[in-house]
Amino acid sequence: MNILELFAAAQNLEVSGNKQGAVALYQQWAATHPDDPALHACYFNLGTLLLHQGDNHAALTAFNESVRLRPDFMPSVISLGSALERLGQMELAIEYWRQAVNQLSPVSSDTIGYKTTALKQLARVLTQRQQAAEAEEMLRLSLDVAPHNREELQHWANARQRLCKWPVPQSVGPIKVADVVATMAPLTLAYYTDDPMLALANAYNYCRRDLVWPRKFKTSADFAGRRRRDDGRLRIGYVSSDLRAHAIGYLTSELFSLHDRSRVEVFAFFCGFQLEDPTMMRIRASVDHWIDINGLEDAKTAELIEELGIDILVDINGHTKDARTRMLALRPAPVIINWLGFPGTMGSPYHHYIIADEVIIPPGSEKYFSEQVLRLPCYQPNDRKRVTSPVVPSRTDCGLPENATVFCCFNGMQKLTRFTLQRWAEILRRVENSVLWILAAGKESDARFLELMAANGIDASRIVFAPYAANPDHMARYALADLFLDNAPYGGHTTGSDALWAGVPVLTVPGRAFHSRVCASLVMAAGIPELVCLDPREYVEKAVRLGNDRPALRALKQKLLELRDHSVLFDTELFARSMEDLFDQVWSEWEAGQLPVPDLTNLDTYLEIGSAFDHDVEEFGFISDYEERYRQELALRHALTPIPHDQRLWPLPD
Questions:
Q1: How far apart are CA 520 and CA 511, in angstroms?
Q2: What's the pTM value of the predicted model, to 2 decimals?
Q3: Of 153, 168, 602, 643, which residue is the least packed, with the fewest Cβ within 10 Å?
């Protein structure tokens, strides 16, 4: 057979499920056609198939042979880099991707595609290696070639956040600033601004354009006969990539074991990084059923969940890395709940509820969510059995001055904005004997942060970077800090409860959106509502007063430690019972035919309006005329082209 007949025959074998047969066919053809001019393509397809099967060494051999036969065949050069990355040969992988970028100077539809792929791979690996500046450069080069690539545009904005390059969105060729904002991934947008209406519209746009809604999916009619089982238990499925050594894993570790098995049967569908760790093993042992869905395509996963009779599916990823949102769009269970993984609305037609509390989504703010709001006493669970290293380092060990006030913030650098940096600088200027202790984010990001602080009058000696540490060691060093300074708009979530568990007071100022109010919820649930500020001015003044009053800080620390065993924040048994009560409520609504229908009305219009606002000039979480700005823009558009009435924020005039 010729090369085209080979491809067709191998594809038929793959479609029928006989992938090993396809591998054997490629290998046999290569052995019997050593002089065929298309042999490089045979080896490329063979390598691709082997890579998908996880046979990385064999894939590397195939791609090597393809590149040897034809060094200018870019798909093999790029894939060779991918195989090397999987085998831990990062430097070589980067070398091959750079080779691809440098060789692809002529412009054609093929070379543009190959070049952007190589640049994207480079940027991804460089980001993982905390080489943010070069990652941003690679993404910008990719956008120069293909400015309308949404994925690269999203990653470029995020890279700029990690480097504290403000303003984050900039025009790129024909792409305007508003287009960059509208295209941001939901998590990137949450780091950028505190605008809950824009967050809803952006999430909706992301689901519709980036995730793509399926043509076939289940509806409520397909589950019409589903009722509670005779034993009274509901089958609850938790879907997450983060039930491991990850912030989500640390928070939920104790919850699963505390679920009342007379009320619920617990299924964990794991779709994340496949590396055993103590947190994963603990969670796996505490659920009734652990099901690894890595490598299982969306349709098959949805079929499996449906066959298992899951009543309520809880999405603990949302719009975060490795989520299985496309699978959820197939509607594999009667009820789907958005909880914990992503701090905000999904903007999807297939998430029916969102779990929060009265601080995170106060009454009256339901209009910013496509889901129906469910409330717990505190939306975040916690693990009271978390492991903390018994060896507590000294301040000297961590590069901290022994007798200074140590302010800390262990949130990622991508969450920082110029508004927070300016507040921190003012606090440090007014608390003379003080330092700021923050997480190291990589050489380039750290240098940029020091440069920005210097521009605000803060010497580099006042900034101490904390290197990466294993979670038990990181928890132990918290005790060295005096006050955690939360940042806005995306504040501390797991980092906030970690600090509170360690007895470190957390000062926060909540905004409007979900992600900007989580830390306030934690601080109140921990029993120190006096550290929840009304506005940024109070935040600065209170930080200065406490920073200059070490005895007051010590008293707050002691209060936190005394409250720890009694506060709502760390009452995991209360959390489990409350969660089960919500499941009962949701199922009663399902059985009564009252399942909520997500409201996605006019969100394209809200996206257009919100993206055009200048979020770099002012903090939308603290402006007094927030809704009025949207009203004015809506009224203007309505006057030109009437918009169907929408009760989400306000009725438009006739």
A1: 9
A2: 0.88
A3: 643
